[in-house]
Specification:
This protein is an alpha+beta fold. The chain is 60% helix and 15% strand. The structure holds adenosine-5'-diphosphate (ADP).
Length: 434
C-alpha cells in the first residue's frame, strides 16, 4: 500500500498575513491623512471664498456709488440746461411759491431727468428723491444709500441739494453676489461629496483586493501539501517494476515529475515574494564568484540539452558583497531562466562577472526576442508582462523581474536593462563590494 506523508507548511499564512496587516495599517494611516488634508483644504477654501465674497460686495458697492455720483452729476448738467429756458424750474428748486400744478409737473420733470441718467448708468433700482435747502440738507439723514448733489452755481441762491435714496441698495448688492456665492458653495459641497464617495469606493475595492490576495495566498498554501504528496508518490512509483527505465510507465512518470516541478516553482515564487515583501532577510557576506560558478554549472547541461550555449566570463578577483545567498541565487536563476525562455531558437547566453572600483557587476546577456524601449522601464513592475504580440507566447506571471529588482535594491544594488527589439537583451546588476 502506498503511504503518503502529509506535510504541512504553516509558515506561509503568517508571513502573508503579518505583511498584509502592515500594508493595511500603512494604507489606513495614509487614508486618514488624505481625508484630514482634503477636508481642511475644503474648509479653508470655503473661508477664503466667504472672505472673497465680502470683498466683492464692498467693491460692488463702491462701483454702484460711483455710478450714482456720475448719474447725478449728469442730472445736474441737464437741470442747468433746462434752467436757461424755464424760470418755473428755478422757482420750484429754490422753494419759491409755485402753484400745485407747476410743482407737480416740475417734480415729474426732475424725476424723469434722474431716471434717464440712472438708466444710462445701468441703475434700475427703485429710488426716492427730494430737493432740500442748506438747512434741511444739514439735518438730512446721511446713510450709505443716500446720495446728495449740490446745485450751487445753477440757481438764484446756493445751498440747494438734490437727495437720492435707494431703499433696496443693500438687497440689490446681496442679490447680485448671493447667486455667485451659492453656486460656489454648491461646487465645494459637490467636491466634498465626490471625495467621500470616491473614498468609500476605494475602501470597498481595497477590501475586495485584500480578500483576493488572501484567497490566492490560501490557495497557494493549499497547493503545498498535494505537491509534496505527488513528489513522494512519484518517488515511490519510480521504484516499481512497471515504471522501470525505458518503459512507457517511466515516460509518464517523468511528465508528472516535470509538471510537478513547474507547479512547485510557481508556488515557491509566490512564497518568496512574501518573504521579500516582508524585508526580513538574513544579511551575510556572499561571494558572487562562487555563486555564479555554481549557477553556471547547474544551467550548462539544460542549455546544452536545448542545443544552446552558455558562457561565463570573469574579470577581477574580489567579488564579495553583502546580501543573502539564497535570494541572490533566485535573482541569478530568474535572469538566466528569462534569457532561455525569451530566446527564439537555441539559447545563446553569456554570464559576465566583473569588478571595478568598489563595485561588482553581474550581467546576463541573450540573443533573444529583445525588449522594445517603452517596455524597458515597466518590466520590473509587479505582474507586468509584454503582450504576446511582442514576444513569443511564453507562460509566466510577471513576478520574476519584480522580485529581482526588490532583492537587488534591498542590498543597495542597482539593476538596468539594455535591449533592442529582436536583437537580445542584457540585464546588468551592480552591487557595492563589502
Ligand atoms: P515572466 O517572465 O513570468 O512574464 P518577468 O517579471 O520575469 O515575468 O518578466 C516580465 C516581462 O519582461 C516578461 O513577460 C517578458 O516579456 C520580459 N522579459 C524579461 N526578460 C526578458 C528577456 N531576457 N528577453 C526578452 N523579454 C524579457
Amino acid at each position: 500500500m502506498l503511504c503518503i506523508v502529509t506535510e504541512s507548511f504553516n509558515f506561509m499564512p503568517e508571513y502573508i498575513s503579518s505583511n498584509t496587516f502592515k500594508m493595511i495599517q500603512n494604507t489606513d494611516q495614509h487614508q486618514k491623512w488624505l481625508a484630514v488634508v482634503t477636508f481642511s483644504a475644503l474648509a479653508l477654501l470655503l473661508v477664503i471664498h466667504v472672505l472673497g465674497v465680502f470683498k466683492a460686495a464692498r467693491l460692488e458697492e463702491r462701483i454702484f456709488n460711483q455710478r450714482v455720483a456720475m448719474a447725478m452729476k449728469e442730472a445736474r448738467d441737464e437741470i442747468g440746461i433746462r434752467l436757461k429756458t424755464c424760470n418755473q424750474m428755478n422757482d420750484y428748486l429754490c422753494g419759491h411759491h409755485c402753484t400745485h400744478t407747476v410743482a407737480l409737473s416740475k417734480t415729474a420733470e426732475l424725476d424723469s431727468i434722474l431716471h434717464s441718467k440712472l438708466e444710462i448708468h445701468n441703475i434700475n433700482l427703485p429710488y426716492t428723491f427730494s430737493v432740500m435747502d442748506a438747512e434741511l440738507a444739514a439735518r438730512a439723514r446721511q446713510g450709505s444709500s443716500c446720495f446728495q448733489q449740490s446745485l450751487n452755481g445753477l440757481l438764484a441762491h446756493n445751498g440747494v441739494k438734490i437727495q437720492l435714496e435707494f431703499p433696496d441698495q443693500s438687497k440689490f448688492v446681496r442679490a447680485q453676489l448671493s447667486s455667485m456665492f451659492l453656486l460656489s458653495v454648491v461646487f465645494i459641497l459637490l467636491v466634498g461629496t465626490s471625495f467621500v464617495v470616491t473614498f468609500r469606493m476605494f475602501r470597498r475595492e481595497r477590501a475586495m483586493m485584500q480578500r483576493t490576495i488572501d484567497f490566492v495566498n490560501n490557495l497557494v498554501h493549499e497547493f503545498q501539501t498535494p505537491l509534496a504528496n505527488i513528489r513522494l508518490a512519484t518517488g515511490l512509483m519510480r521504484k516499481m517494476p512497471v515504471c522501470s527505465a525505458g518503459g512507457k510507465g517511466n515516460d509518464y512518470l517523468l511528465i508528472i515529475q516535470k509538471e510537478r516541478q513547474k507547479l512547485q516553482n510557481h508556488v515557491e515564487n509566490i512564497l518568496q515574494l512574501a518573504t521579500i515583501e516582508q524585508k526580513q532577510l538574513k544579511v551575510e557576506v556572499v561571494d558572487l564568484a562562487e555563486l555564479t560558478q555554481a549557477v553556471f554549472d547547474q544551467y550548462q547541461p539544460s542549455v546544452e540539452a536545448l542545443n544552446g550555449r552558455i558562457h561565463l566570463e570573469v574579470s577581477g578577483d574580489f567579488f564579495k558583497v553583502k546580501g543573502n545567498a539564497s535570494q541572490f541565487e533566485m535573482v541569478w536563476n530568474n535572469l538566466i531562466d528569462n534569457a532561455i525562455k525569451y530566446s527564439v531558437s537555441a539559447p545563446e547566453v553569456t554570464l559576465r562577472l566583473s569588478q571595478k572600483d568598489s563595485k561588482v557587476y553581474f550581467s546576463v546577456a541573450d540573443k533573444g526576442v529583445g525588449i522594445s524601449r517603452p517596455h524597458q522601464a515597466l518590466i520590473f513592475d509587479q505582474y507586468y508582462r509584454i503582450g504576446s504580440g511582442d514576444t513569443h507566447p511564453v507562460k509566466g506571471f510577471g513576478l520574476g523581474l519584480y522580485m529581482v529588482r526588490k532583492v537587488v535594491e534591498m542590498f543597495q544594488g542597482k539593476i538596468e536593462v539594455e535591449s533592442s527589439h529582436g536583437k537580445g537583451s542584457t540585464f546588468i546588476i551592480e552591487f557595492p563590494v563589502c
